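Annual report, structural modelling task.

Input specification for the D-malate complex:
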Amino acid sequence: MVKINDNYLNLKGSYLFSTIAKKVKAYSEENPDKKIIRLGIGDVTRPLSSSVIASLYSAVDEMAKKETFKGYAPDLGYEFLRSAIAKNDYKDRGCNIEADEIFVSDGAKCDSGNIQEIFSTDNVIAVCDPVYPVYVDSNVMAGRTGLFDENTGKYSKVVYMPCTKENNFTPAFPEKTPDIIYLCFPNNPTGGVITTSELQKWVDYANEKKAVIIYDAAYEAYIREENIPHTIYECEGADTCAIELRSFSKNAGFTGLRLGFTVIPKKLKVGDVSLNSLWARRHSTKYNGAPYIVQRAGEAVYSDAGKAEVKELVNYYMQNASYICEGLKSAGYEIYGGVNAPYIWLKTPDNLTSWEFFDMLLNKASVVGTPGSGFGPSGEGYFRLTAFGDHEATKEAIERIKKL
Ligand code: MLT
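The model returned the following structure:
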């Protein structure tokens, strides 16, 4: 008789953003006259920029002609895109990453969920708490986490590294030495950042412990201050201990188009085994590549016009971030993030739990945010708002919250 992968039964409830979507749907059915403002999931709202659109049209035209039609993409991504990434995201920042160390995919969510497959299920993972749920859930599915404890809100074999206002939302080295360390900066959900010298300490730690860092830099385009690394490869020795995940979703608005990439330096080895080769094997076996037209759109993001458009998009969203931070501060809220990241992390008022505040905001203001406890036990008592709304809706949401 067929058996299921019963690790799935060990998952806690449904995926956070699906739970929220269900609650919002129920509210909207009960209150059809209410205008709901969604500042929950970090989904962009601005349309694609003109360089990206032009590139999509021209790639579609190529697909319409026999001479220029493209079938399967190369497994690991088209050379034109991998070279543009290597140059613009790495070499121009002084990081020695080559095109063949870059693997193009349809987004960082899939890569962050899939990357654990190349590691043994015996490895101990460490995650920041709160954390983007995909890192933990994908390890639960693989059977690496032990059982969930309802009392602590934790999986028994996962090392949780609390990130709270007391440590400025950057984790301390854990007591138990992990094998795989997930870091995300600028951080989702707290909007916190790490300085280059602090990240260097993590790189040194990982090299010393022979651990691997999985570094999610999906929000690097939002960094505005100095001394904050845009990539982990700005740290010395990161090429022997770090994998980096990147996305076109948040900088260029590709959440619906889908494009991302993973960097695995060739020097990154476990024993004699190159992780670059393992991931290449996995990628070519299970994946047929992001669509040609999307990869051409990604290339356009690196043109001069494309880069200017990304800046404009990021500025647009960061105006929301400033507006949210200032508005809520003036209303007496305790606010974090929102300076180098499109997320604002606020302390819930009157000791409300994260979900109580979620319900209050939805029911009294018709505003949707994300409860901090959905990201992990240290997120309890916090709440996340995104800066990805449009200006008018964001302003209205803040006015409504101020009136509560
Ligand atoms: C979030 O809201 O945390 C993100 O949008 C989720 C994602 O990027 O997958």
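Residues 6-46+305-402 form a domain with the Aspartate Aminotransferase, domain 1 fold (CATH 3.90.1150.10).
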